[in-house]
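Write out a sequence, fold above all:
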Amino acid sequence: MINPGTTVLLFKILLVCYLLFSVMLVRAGVTEPNPRLEDAFDFMNVLAKKGLHDLKEERWNAYGQFTYISSWKSGFPASYTNLNGSINSLLPGSERSFTGTATLYLGLKTWHGGEIYYVPEMISMRPLSDLKGLGGVIQNFELQKGGTETPIFYQSRLFFKQTFGFGGERIQLTSDPMQLGTTVDSRRLVVRFGNFSVIDFFDKNSYSGDLRRQFLNMAFMTYAAFDFAADARGYTWGGVAEYFHDDWTFRFGHVATAIDPNQIPLDMRVFKYYGQQVEVERRHLLNGYPGAVRILAYRNHENMGKFSDAIAAFRSDPNKNATTCTGFNYGSGNAGAPDLCWARNPNDKMGIGINIEQQVLDGVGLFFRGMYSDGKTEVYSYTSTDRSISLGALVNGFRWGRDGDLLGIGFAAGWISGQHAKYLNMGGVDGFIGDGRIKARAEDVVDIFYSVNVLSSLWVTADYQHITNPGFNADRGPVNIYGLRVHAEF
């Protein structure tokens, strides 16, 4: 007999697929949202037009962005909230959230093939419910664990890049943030060392990745189940190697992990605790339109708790509960619940995913992501999701006379493992969720946005999100969230 929740989920997927097919009937301009637009009004373009800068062979460049996102959550039904002293429920009342970010991207050529990039950033934020209660469909991708309304300035990236050419065709790389304009071989090795985000280089997708122009929900930034090693802001230190061979790319990364889950300090003992990822990418043409397929696998070796070990420790000694933890914990007040702090040991976490993007008509791009993680251990750096999918479409607005506008329709769903659900049902909490009890179901979101290109480098976006089973809990929700984004580039 088919589970009613599964039937509803399948219906939602079919509905989104129908909407995607409907969108495909509208022909539009080529949609390449990630690179800087050729006719954009920015500092480097202004210098180039005055003959003061060579965009084709740069010795330096400087770009910047500002993004403000405001979200409003309406009230929603919930059978219980923060049951028995648990602390990680999404509050059922109406709330407002916001983020404001500003970023400066600086690049400098050192010698042939050598480049240095430095990226300072600022954020001010107020999350919904203290960033608790949503597992993998957090409504605003900019939100960070531990952020405040007072602006915080920090270094997001500082890394060295060296390119070694091995022949093939000559390819022009455009001038972009964290990319100097230059000509390279189609067969080349690129190595980077320093401070960056893993998803700067892994799991890229033209239609679901650059969320300052695209979808607002975090489930569309990367695989929700990709617990990539990072601090609470999403950055780390380490090395990445990429080998390009014409239409193929092979990537490997080895990076530092946080000392404690979802916290800022990193453990620089990178050969004791680390995150590793490997990715294979194949670019192709389908009916004359570009596309790509990427397969990514990751393995984290971290000091993290297994759900089964936390449950076993509590059952063998009820004094090892969520209120008596002497190590790092999330502050739960539920004395009748297990806690991961009693189970942290060196453990491995692994997952594998597929990422597909395909342009299907002029200006219409489709995407799909799916990842399976083992689900044995706690969330350490990203979301509480153990398995995830996302799919959708991005459409350029030239067909209705708005060349710079974008329309996006997306669906994402996530699941937790049986052991994860058992731990939560006993009242346990992890970094983001824990209502004190759970009727485990898929947590999913439909995200629809329209972005208006007000000026060449200024966009205003209206966004609607419908979230079902927040925190993977069918006893709560659904939730409606309305968003407004202002994004400028310079």
Summary: The longest helix spans residues 4-24.
